[in-house]
Amino acid sequence: MNLWSRIADCIARDGACALVTVAEVAGSAPREVGARMIVRGDGGLSGTIGGGTLEFEAIRWARAAIADGRSDLALRRVSLGPDLGQCCGGRVEVAIEAFSVKDLAEVAALAEREAMGGRFLTRRDPLTGQREVLTMNAATPAAAFVRADDGSVLEWFGTSERPVWLFGAGHVGRAVVLALAPLPFAVTWIDSRAEMFPVAMPGQLTCMAHDRPAELVDKAPQDAFILIMTHSHALDEDIAAAALRLGRFAYVGVIGSATKRARFVSRLGKRGLAPAAVSAMVCPVGATGPKSKLPAAIAASIAVELLVKNEAANGETLSNQTLALSFGLRQ
User: What is the pTM of this model?
Assistant: First the structure.
């Protein structure tokens, strides 16, 4: 969600709201560090920190902070079992911060930065409570919420969607677009038939009609996932060959069967692609999911596959704990 713009809207409409952030997790918990929700004075909310008793209590704490007119950052640590009767067994610390009309200028500035896209890092001053946007460098922490030794708080905001270039606007392609819409992916949808794109589109979606879709592959970003499911096996092969030949995509997936994969492996080899390049092709896609052939079921299995791959690709960095220790920070 556009967090800061929603906070600005809440302040403009209601005069105040509160931001609840999962600041620390130990053991099993409903959500990860950095999960957030906005709570209004009437108990309405945007986002979630996992539901259940923890979220119920966090809403109550947030409403109390709004009613009290507090502007400090309140931290509440609970053991989910002994304190809340939940079975998760972990411990969670939540940060609660209320905003009012006096904060509107700061919130508007952060909303403006948020609208620029991408993730950005802020530092909350321990004395003034004001946030400043930091310039990222080699010492930038990866953790979503970090408390420094001087009492300041570093937090990541904004979104970082993985580009997915989806070739094919048939029934499964449409289902995949809908399945990926609420997930951290920015889809570029490509087909040679402009009339195949629906009139109503979900957010984070760009449509491109091109007579020779394979020619667009080299325009995909370095970190894009390539997903191929056109109406033509010959076209699928052309796109796969172009993507695999570039050798810079972490995921190149082709819809089909084991038989289709075997034929593509043979044909791509005859095109001069090295065996190592061809072996990187994922075909069939979503193979570990349900066996149903319903487009929505296929799309669900593909979405899970892309989520797992995205987490693995994003995890090829130092752990949050290592970063925190390296730069004198504590999470």
Answer: 0.77
